[in-house]
Design goal:
heterodimer; A: Rossmann fold; Ubiquitin-like (UB roll); 14 helices; B: mainly alpha; globular
Chain lengths: 435, 366
């Protein structure tokens, strides 16, 4: 039972039941693989192979450029057949196209990897393995694990709060790779020697908490934090607040308050890179939605085009009308089936025409629900009003730049006002003004 | 590229592209208004039971006048038609339920026209009206004879035409409240005198043809309506609780902890009607979470003050109108502190919080 109160969250239908109990299935990579140089947030990588080159599983094909950037590695063995500009998720970027020879010949593991890697070398191995945050934001993990000098990290938070509707990839990863995740924590703990490790899990995924608790038995720093299933529970700032009671200062980083947060899957990759010397070449992604006959949790090689996954999931039982890279709250729509599974592809959601809402906007009735649901306590309608009045300065004063773009305000608005769209525009206008 | 035969490809489908979020709460402003309408059926039924068919009749007239006047106004000024949002129906119903026993159809029409045209539509329509239209018209109805008498000498037209039924030509002090239970306990009384209605009768609404306006006679009907709105997630339960609680506390202290006196105040007059349908109004209430709490507390203090002082009738209506006037300023002082910030955001007291009528899109303009 819920009342009209300030929950700072919404409670959308999670729709996870169709894939909740489906074990992760490994799928074969198709003949043609696509590697955008922008699989992470920050500067795109630079291609270091040429057309005609032979690559193996784990061969560096794109090199990180600048501080916030990531390496791109081949996830199959074969031949580079093209290097071209393509429209991918986050704009037009260089993509390396590899023809898969289906032999999966692997590069040798990193020679430094093993059970006793010195703490200084760990971020380097993470970088070499091409690991980026797997929760969707794809922040380069080596950068995150190298906090600015003078910052003491006392708390590590694993983000297992999978609050985007439809997604079960983190849940399955926690259930099936619990041991590797716990080993990943130990790797990072050897750098910071933290006082506390929280694993944040929503109360609809308690089974994962049980499995992780078992895996972490004897490792007393780890606490499984069962949180209410609400959106956006898995947002970094909200997770920190709900686990530790601390708030990240405006414009600051979690490291400023001694915290590092990373997705559970990322810790699995850290374990594999640092202990086994293996690069990040695959991830668990949920392919789901009403149009699909058999939604699944798949272990997919990075670079696999989305078109190659539809038939694996039984094809379409209903005509799709919208395809979302990610979930319905924050995901981006795509049209082009050649766009590949990337480091941050938690799930792909397909919608039928009936599921695509087309409601007409009407006047604001001042129900103030957008203020009730905003996780960062903004007043979305006032920022939207300021933008529509042409008052960018006021939008800034009201905190437009603090918006985390979770979408709760637009989700809840009974008058269907495009609040987040207006806030995004206000942010863009503020940035233009600053330049 | 790798086009095998029979392979499913996204390119074969007509796909839409747009911004997140892609799902929405399954409700609408219209649905919210419909819930309020359903809630008002409880006091409407009680009023019809105790006062006869006039309750239904008067409420229908008020609703029709509100909807038609909004329609005509929007046609004349060529504004987008908004009668489908059902807010005019809600206003009409509150007006109908606020009318006194024996009111004429003509005064009901005048009160409804005033609410929609002057209070709601001229400031810009739904969400832009500073004052609650129904409450403003309730007060206007009360004050009209007095205002007209101040300007026109001799036999007054409006009183005879509109409100002679319920309102004497005397002073405004004994207009609506005359012979209602509230009469017994207001204006300086600190205990319930002999001859007043029993609490039980006031709770049920069986007040022998007394009991103030058509919709406020039965406390139980109003409490059911309030519970309905709370459980349908339409009104914040804290708002009526703070309003009624504030009045109750002040009355308890004022009477030297006379519990019966306090209960009498809760069950009489428009307190429950106001607590359910008036202080909870979206457009004229607080916007910020804290402002929304200040509104009922302030209205409660004022209501108690009006009831204790000699100027007792319509304490509920006057207190809500006063809070309507000052809440936009209070809201600006108590804007919520943004995550990670130390101070609240501040805007100038003059800053207009309402949705602009002419919407701009700066990015597109560039």
């Amino acid at each position: 039972m819920r009342f009209k109160l300030k929950y700072k969250a919404t409670f959308p239908a999670y729709n996870k039941s169709r894939t909740h109990d489906k074990a992760i299935e490994r799928v074969d990579a198709p003949a043609i693989m696509v590697y955008p140089m922008s699989m992470h947030i920050g500067a795109p990588a630079k291609p270091v192979v040429a057309v005609g080159d032979t690559v193996k599983v784990g061969t560096l094909i794109g090199e990180a450029q600048g501080f916030i950037s990531g390496n791109i590695l081949s996830s199959v063995s074969g031949k580079v057949i093209s290097i071209e500009e393509r429209d991918v998720l986050n704009g037009r970027h260089t993509c390396i196209i590899v023809k898969n020879d289906q032999d999966y010949i692997e590069e040798p593991p990193f020679p430094e990897a093993g059970d006793n890697v010195s703490p200084e070398l760990i971020p380097e191995l993470i970088k070499r393995a091409g690991i980026s945050g797997m929760g969707g934001a794809t922040f380069p993990t080596n950068v995150k694990m190298t906090p600015p000098k003078g910052k003491t990290i006392d708390t590590l938070i694993l983000n297992g709060a999978e609050c985007e509707p439809y997604s079960t990839s983190d849940f399955r990863t926690m259930v099936e790779y619990a041991d590797e995740i716990i080993e990943g924590i130990k790797v990072i703990d050897s750098i910071f020697n933290v006082g506390k490790v929280y694993i944040g899990i929503e109360d609809n995924a308690k089974e994962a908490g049980e499995v992780l608790k078992q895996a972490a038995s004897g490792y007393d720093k780890v606490e499984i934090k069962i949180l209410k299933a609400q959106y956006p529970q898995g947002s970094e700032k909200q997770l920190i607040e709900h686990c530790t009671g601390r708030q990240v200062p405006a414009g600051g980083l979690p490291a400023d308050i001694g915290v590092i947060v990373s997705n559970v899957g990322t810790f699995q990759q850290i374990y594999r890179a640092v202990r086994l010397g293996k690069p990040m070449v695959e991830r668990v992604t949920t392919i789901t939605g009403t149009p699909l006959a058999e939604p699944k949790n798949l272990l997919i090689r990075l670079g696999t085009p989305i078109d190659d996954l539809i038939d694996i999931c039984g094809g379409f039982q209903e005509v799709p009308r919208k395809v979302i890279h990610g979930g319905p709250m924050m995901g981006m729509t795509i049209k082009d089936g050649a766009i590949p599974i990337s480091k941050g592809t938690t799930h792909i959601t397909f919608f039928t025409a009936e599921e695509v809402a087309e409601d007409e906007r009407i006047d604001c009735i001042r129900c103030s629900e957008c203020l009730n649901v905003c996780p960062v306590s903004l007043q979305p309608i006032l920022i939207s009003n300021a933008y529509e009045r042409g008052d960018i300065e006021k939008a800034e004063q009201l905190g437009a730049m603090d918006c985390i773009e979770c979408g709760n305000c637009s989700y809840i608005c009974p008058s269907k006002i495009p609040l987040l769209e207006n806030i995004r525009k206000a942010k863009a206008a503020i940035k233009q003004k600053a330049v | 590229m790798s086009t095998q035969k029979g392979k499913t490809s996204l390119g074969d489908f007509d796909l839409v592209m747009d911004q997140s979020p892609h799902i929405f709460e399954k409700w609408s402003s219209q649905w919210i208004m419909l819930q309020v309408i359903i809630a008002m059926l409880f006091p409407l039924a009680a009023g019809t039971y105790f006062f006869g068919m006039q309750t239904l009749w008067i409420t229908c007239i008020a609703v029709l006048t509100c909807v038609i006047s909004e329609y005509v106004y929007e046609r004349i000024v060529r504004k987008r038609m908004t009668i489908n949002d059902l807010s005019a129906v809600v206003t009409g119903m509150v007006i109908g339920l606020s009318m006194p026993n024996g009111v004429s159809w003509f005064s009901t029409v005048l009160a409804s026209l005033f609410a929609i045209v002057i209070v709601k539509m001229i400031p810009g329509g739904i969400g832009k009206n500073r004052f609650n239209p129904a409450v403003a018209s309730r007060i206007m109805y009360l004050m009209a004879p007095w205002i007209v008498n101040s300007f026109v000498q001799g036999p007054d037209i409006l009183t005879t035409a509109s409100s002679a039924e319920a309102i004497t030509t005397a002073t405004p002090t004994d207009l609506v409240a005359t012979a209602t239970p509230l009469f017994y306990i207001s204006s300086g009384a600190t205990e319930v005198p002999e001859g007043a209605q029993t609490l039980w009768n006031m709770f049920l609404g069986n007040q022998g043809g007394w009991g103030g306006s058509l919709g406020e006679t039965s406390s139980i009907a109003l409490l059911i309506a309030m519970a309905f709105l709370i459980f349908r997630r339409i009104i914040n339960p804290k708002v009526p609780a703070l309003y009624i609680g504030t009045v109750a506390l002040i009355m308890l202290a004022y009477s030297g902890f006379d519990f019966e006196f306090m209960m009498y105040h809760i069950l009489s007059g428009a307190l429950l009607l106001g607590g359910t349908f008036m202080v909870t109004d979206y457009a004229s209430g607080g916007l910020t979470p804290f402002g929304r709490m200040l509104f009922p507390i302030g209205a409660g203090i004022l209501t108690a003050a009006f009831r204790i002082s000699a100027f007792s009738p319509e304490g509920v209506g006057f207190s809500i109108l006063i809070m309507n006037a000052i809440i936009p300023f209070l809201d600006k002082l108590v804007m919520p502190r943004i995550y990670g910030h130390k101070k609240r955001p501040m805007v100038h007291p003059d800053y207009d919080l309402t949705e602009p009528l002419n919407k701009r899109d700066i990015l597109a303009e560039k």
